[in-house]
Structure formats: C-alpha cells, structure tokens
Amino acid sequence: MASVQSCNETLYFPDRGKEGVSEWARSRKDVLVIDCDSTVESFSGIMYRNLSLIIPSSSNNTNSSMSEGLQLNAPVISFTFYPNIKRQLISPVEIQFQLYNNLLDNARCSFWKESKSETSQGYWSDEGCRLKKYDKDEGVVMCICDHLTNFAVLMSPSLKPIEDGHKEALSIISMIGCIVSMFCLVLNVAIHAFFWRFIKSVRYIIHMNLSCWLIIAYILFLVGINRTENKAVCTAIAVLLHLVFLIVFFGMLAEGCNLSYTVLEPLSTIKPGMPLMIWSYVLAVIIVVISMGCITGYRDMETNRHAGLSMIRDYDMGPFFSSGFFVL
Q: Each residue of 20-56: pLDDT tens digit?
C-alpha cells in the first residue's frame, strides 16, 4: 500500500523506488500510470497478490462462450484519489498486468462492481475499460480505463482453431466411419429381410425402420456436409438432418418401450410397438415445424456460412458413426 500527500504529476503505482515495497512487487512488471491534478490531495493504492479464492470470477458478459472458465490471471490493483473525483478523469488510467499463466487467452480488462442485491457479492464488469495491448510472449496485458476502482484482468482457456491438416484428417476419418456404419446398417437390413418369414414381428419392423433412417441420415450427411455455399440448400439439409435424427431418437425410444412392455407383460395381447412408431414420426415432425416457425436456429444458419454442418464435419464423428454398429 502507498499513500502520498501531494499530487501534481504523472503517478506510477507501485513506485518501486520507495521504501516498503515488497520484493514480490519489485520483481514484477505490474504498474498503474495516471496523470494527477491539483484538486487531488492524496491517493492510495493496493496490489492484491491473489484474490481468486475470495472473489468469484463471474462477469456481466452475456456471451456465455466468452464468460465460461474465466480466471483472475494477474494481481488485482486498487487505486483511489482523495477526495474522490466525481467527474471524468483528466486522462485515462493505464494499467499494465504481468500474467500468472501464459497458457490462458482472451484477455478482458475488468473492474469489480459491487452488487446492490443482498444475494450477490458483485461481479467483474468491463464498462469503461478496454484492452490496449496483449503481448503473449512477454506475458503482459495493458488496459485503459476511464475511472478508478479495483482493476483486474480475466482470461479463459484458449480455443485454438483446428489446423487445416487436422481438419482434412478428421474429415477422412469421419467419411470412412460413416461408410463403414452404412455398410453395417445395409448388412443389418439384408439379414433381417432374408430371415423375415422366421422373425416377423413389430419389434423387428421398428428395428428395420430405425436402420433405414440411419442410412438416410448418413447419406444426407455425406452429400450435404460441404454444401455450405448455398444458403437455401444448407438450411434444407440442416432441417432434414434434424428431422431424421429426431425420428431415429424417437424410434429407439419406441423400440425400448416396446421391448420393456414385452418383458413386463409377456401374456398381454396388446402390441404397443406400431402406435409408438407412428408417434415417433408425428413428434419428430411437430418439433421440426415448431423449430422452423418459432426458433431462430434455422434462420441463423442462413447468415452463417457453415450452417452448423462444417462444424460437425471438422470435429470427431465417433459417436455419430458408431450408431451403425450399435443397430447391427
């Protein structure tokens, strides 16, 4: 902590030339720089080494993807003028932070804002603060703010884009996996068709429908995964994939319910399998129609070149193509 009774020049906090500054503070690059005027009688500042276990890392950012996993990645610097300046500062305050962990990314200049609610301590806000410099090699972040308070830099794990070579490898793996799954599904349908007169039942009708819809899903995926240049085609494929996988989901649910009923009521003459299969189609269509009419997901795809398809293509498709083996 430091306090000076005169304030008529550029101030640096902490002033490493003064006595009483700890060796930890002297060895770091953290510094707050601000111009002072004659209306200020004194100032004080505190640099907190670690408040991550005391103050939460919650923020006011409405973007959940940016707010997720935020961490305090530098000391918290508190600085105040006396008497408090109600008007805007003559010049903005610059704060340089030396980072604790250089593996984090997405630096956000923030200050602690107390909450008026009794159920909340407060949150980190970025109002009036902006990022001026982020040097990852040196592990330094510089922020500019238009007010004085408790300053900090919040960062989150880096989400690095997949390299082109890895994308191509993942695409090849996904394509091979889908083809293998389609082969297994076709083999499954052929075996059921060959032995149909021996195994004819509602259960296997549902099973055959499930296999056929999965084959259609793989065909749609392989044909449409790269058709992202045309907005209408891209949206249509996304809608069809949504519908097909909903039918698959409800078909699996119908098969499970029918099997459970058969085990629990072996002497019953009621066969709920066919009504359940019909309802699987009805519910899937209802959900897709509601999504098209009320939810903006499909409309957002029209303004997004990837339309959700390239993202699926570029990442692991293991759970997707493993369903072929599951059905077989």
A: 778 888 888 899 988 876 677 777 888 888 776 677 6
Same domain flag for 136 and 275: no
- Tell me the two tokens of residue 60: 């006011």
> Domain of 305?
164-327
Residues 127 and 275 in one domain: no
Nearest CA to 109 among 127, 95, 129, 92? 129
Neighbours of 164 (CB within 10 A): 8
Query: Could you tell me the CA-to-CA distances from 114 to 58, 63, 123 in Å, in that order?
Result: 12, 21, 7
- φ and ψ of 50, to 5 deg: -155, 115
Phi, psi of 100 (to 5 degrees): -80, -45
Q: Which of 95, 123, 157 is the last residue of a domain?
A: 157
Please indicate, yes or no, whether residues 60 and 95 belong to a single structural domain of this protein. Answer: yes
Which residue, 252, 225, 190, is CA-closest to 308? 225
From 108, 134, 157, the end of a domain falls on 157
Mean per-residue pLDDT, 297-319: 44
Domain identity same for 300 and 264: yes
Torsion of CA 185, 186, 191, 195, to 10 degrees: 110
DSSP 211-252: HHHHHHHHHHHHHHTT--SSHHHHHHHHHHHHHHHHHHHHHH
Residue 119: what pLDDT?
62
